[in-house]
Specification:
The chain is α/β, with parallel strands linked by helices. The protein has 14 helices and 18 strands. Strands 1, 2, 3, 4, 5, 16, 17 and 18 form an eight-stranded mixed β-sheet that branches. A four-stranded parallel β-sheet has the order 6-7-8-10. A four-stranded parallel β-sheet has the order 12-13-14-15. The radius of gyration is 21 Å and the shape is globular.
């Protein structure tokens, strides 16, 4: 297990950073704070934001924009080695023939010790300051992932995956019994808490209803109630999964999860593309929410998630890469994909259908909306005090250069106002443009200091 403090992470000290801030603390409202001095206390919390010319420990200059850190609400950590492969297959074939065998290999500590640091460091370089992980069914390698996040400085929710159903899982990669599924999940909670890091938390993780027996689902619901640990699972991702729930339970996936006690405050439901209006009502009333994964949905969901409808219904929504069902590890690119998906849902995709009947009117979201979901939306879904650079919130932030030679991200002062500048940053910034990344006031990626 990894211990100690990463050499790339500086010690948390009180400091003041000067920068231009761009963020969306409220849905639909781009906020620009020009050349403000952000005072960060020793706990990594923003103590004050000054609009004067006081001296600062770090002045990012006029060609760098400070954004809130990005929140990735859905990642399959053991799928990292297969990123970018197998995406022409149906979901159930992709899982059984490619994904489960790889995940079984990540129960081996020696392999996990190589994969986990590569994954976490790469995501930090992409500006992912908070990550929500599905790990493996193995307590040891799951704990290793949590320890890696703590060492490298990433805020993370790490879940040992529970899956005991003999018809929905391979014989070599499943819990041996209901008791094993619940007991190992509890052991994982204790092991992650024993790391004693303010950055990492356990999350109860029934993979999805096809992989879990009724008794395991109920037992994990009881575990969530007794420990107060939040829950993550997949919900109505595809025609297959949505139909499976109706056939097995005689009700929707959402209703079934609620019946098992898994639809709780801050429960993270991956995908949710096939949720009905009634389902959204259940999700919203419970304080649960959806991890919207626009890119992987294009491969596996058989539908476009109605992001605008969910937001209008007051449902909590965050963005997710769904590594490796999604082939891009950065959350910024998911913002652009979310806008693209909403446009396709609004306009429709089949030209043989008359235009007036082709799409779902009122489905569009803007890049501003998408960025809100990627930051404050994800933080609110998880119940963490991040997602915006405001007084009293954690200083989770990324510094993006808008003047890197050779970058597609170029600002033309003659024509680019704040709105255009922001859209270019969100759509075009790459890890090469991200100069620094902080989590809780500690720099965890990038060059220089503090």
């Amino acid at each position: 297990m990894i211990t100690g403090i990463s050499e790339t992470a500086s010690t948390v000290q009180s400091k003041t950073v000067r920068a231009t801030v761009m963020q969306v603390p409220r849905l639909g409202e781009l906020e620009v704070l020009n050349q403000v001095a952000i005072e960060i206390d020793g706990d990594g919390v923003i103590a004050a934001i000054h609009h004067d010319d006081r001296l600062c420990d770090l002045d990012l200059g006029k060609n760098v924009v400070l954004l809130p850190g990005l929140v990735d609400t859905h990642i399959h950590a053991p799928q990292w080695p297969q990123l970018g492969t197998g995406l022409d297959l149906p979901l159930e074939k992709w899982l059984l023939e490619h994904t489960f065998p790889l995940e079984a290999r990540l129960t081996e500590p020696a392999f996990a010790a190589v994969v986990w640091p590569a994954l976490v460091s790469t995501l930090l370089a992409h500006g992912t300051t908070t990550a929500v992980y599905y790990a493996t069914i193995n307590v040891e390698t799951t704990t290793m992932l949590a320890a890696t996040c703590a060492e490298l400085g990433q805020r993370a929710f790490v879940g040992r995956v529970a899956m005991d159903h003999p018809d929905g899982t391979p014989t070599n990669y499943r819990d041996a019994s209901v008791a094993a599924a619940v007991d190992a999940s509890f052991a994982s909670i204790e092991a992650i808490n024993d790391i004693r890091s303010s950055l990492v938390r356990p999350i109860i993780t029934p993979r999805f209803t096809p992989a879990c027996t009724d008794a395991a689902l109920a037992g994990l619901g009881d575990l969530a109630a007794s420990t107060g640990v939040i829950v993550q699972t997949h919900c109505s991702e595809s025609d297959w999964q949505h139909g499976y729930a109706n056939e097995r339970f005689g009700m929707s996936d959402t209703e079934a999860l609620a019946g098992f006690g898994l639809m709780r405050d801050h429960t993270v439901l991956a995908h949710g593309d096939h949720l009905s209006g009634a389902d959204f009502g259940i999700v919203g009333a419970a304080g649960s929410g959806v991890a919207h994964c626009p890119l992987s949905n294009a491969y596996f969901a058989n539908a476009v998630f109605p992001l605008r409808r969910a937001l209008d219904a007051g449902v909590r929504v965050g963005l997710g890469t769904d590594i490796a069902g999604g082939s891009k590890p950065g959350v910024l690119s998911q913002c652009a994909d979310a806008v693209t998906a909403s446009q396709m849902l609004h306009d429709g995709v089949d030209a043989s259908i008359e235009a007036a009947h082709r799409g779902v009117a009122g489905s569009r979201v803007s890049i501003v909306d998408a960025f809100h979901v990627a930051t404050r939306g994800g933080a609110d879904l998880l119940g963490i005090n991040a997602g915006a650079l405001d007084v009293g919130r954690l200083f989770d932030a990324i510094a993006v250069s808008t003047a890197r030679p050779g970058s597609a991200l170029q600002i033309w002062r003659e024509i680019d106002d704040d709105a255009r500048r922001f859209e270019k940053i969100v759509r075009l910034a790459t890890p090469q443009d991200i100069e620094k990344v902080w989590v809780g006031g500690t720099q965890v990626a990038g060059t220089g200091g503090p």
